[in-house]
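Today's session is about reading a structure prediction critically. Students often jump straight to the picture, but the first step is always the sequence itself: look for stretches that repeat, for charged clusters, for runs of hydrophobic residues. Only then move on to the predicted structure, which in these notes is written as discrete structure tokens rather than atom positions. Here is the chain we will use throughout the hour.
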Amino acid sequence: MDDKQEKTAALRAVVYVRISDDPEGTERGVDRQETDCRAYADREGMTVVEVFRENDTSAFKQRTITLPSGERVRRVVRPQFRAMLGFLAQGNADVMIAYDLDRAVRDPRDLEDLIDAKVLSRFQVRSVTGSLKLDSDADVAMARVLVAMANKSSADTARRVARASKQQAIEGTWHGGRVPFGYRVEGKTLVVDPESAELVQEAARRVLAGESLYRIKVDFNQRGILTTHGCPWSDKTMKMMLRNPSIKGVRTYRPVQPDGTRAATSEVFAKAVWPPILDEDTFQQVSDVLDARKAASSFHEGGSKRLYPFTGLIRCSKCGTAMTHRGGVYQCVPPMPGGYTRGIRAGEVEALTEQAVLAVFAQIAHNPGKRTRSTDQTARTGLAAALESDRAKLAQLDDDHYDGLIDRAAWVRQRARIADRIEKTRRDYQATTPDAGPVIDVTTVADQWAGRTPLWQYQAASLVLEAVLIHAHPADMLTAVPKRRNETTEEFRVRRDAHRANVLARRVEFVWRA
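Below is the predicted structure for this chain, in token form.
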């Protein structure tokens, strides 16, 4: 064996394989490329030390990413390609082998990065087909030309595919992909699946009847009904199913934007060739109900999800601040250090409040004419005026603090009180607005309470309950009941529970709406 053969035999090679589209995930394409690349390495006497595989990964499509510097740029995202360049930069291999030039790079920026890495780390670049070689300036120039042509070919193909998809949408034909719940595919179009279509219609009827997505979701999961993904239902998948225009027989098309993402709104709305499951009016009514619920759930910017039915109603009797649910306890912690604190067991006050609220709704069910939701215009005008006045006071308070007229302690204390008063007035104003929030039948709340979401329970309770005031622990009552000598455990628990009930009755005060 001469010196040249000995040098070639000592070369360590890395193999890079990639395929753009593998919807079934079989990886047969990259397997074939790896086999051919290994055979090439064996023929050349090279030893393969590492294989970098990127299956179902495009070398053309760009995405918007944020660099560590904070700059937003457009890049082709290929983690394994970058990992291979890092592996070669560390001197762990002498040769990079790919099946073909367009399997390695189709983006000019990626090619330039590969060229720079080769120059700095002095490794060789080879391909099975011979189309990728960067040994001389002529090889580099030819690679740049071929990559530019491949990039243009990919751009032309993407444009033709997008135009064909838009034409399919205009004609109302099925475009493939995930089959909407309620349908099945026959040939190249959708047909109604009677069993699942009935479930779509059932969910729509229940939403229009006032049921929450949470309750429908729980019922579907208990019945063993799965989504098209074969997964249990969630609030999100239930909403997506009911909002899918396909179920009303409409084909939509959302174009790809310059940054590579889909547009938020559809560009094409066309009558589909497949039959609808819901008629247009029913679909719109369901969408309107879901929109109204979403608006009603946004109590503040961000619209956080409600976890407890009475937060916001349970308030400290001393400062009027809404108490916070923390670790099984409702707490009032004033913002000033060294101030008082007040707490009460969440389970006890919630159970007592729920019992009181349901008792009121039970009375309403027997006498439905005695309590109705007020929509009096005079009351709304007064609440609006109070809201505007408090907002002006809040602005004036901030100005006074900025000008040094009041210290920080007074500013924090007064601002908290005014902010809480504004929030309470805002809720009262929304409660008197006609058609605000979901329509709740007060005569059936007691029967529907169990199984409803905390948000629905809060909205129902707010119709009759203005606040739950928590007073300090009575000075003449023990905070803890000691066990007596010779007292059994059962006797102690009965006496302790009775003591807690007596304390709770004196600490909790309900403020009902007139």
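Discussion point for the tutorial: Residues 137-171 form the longest helix (35 residues).
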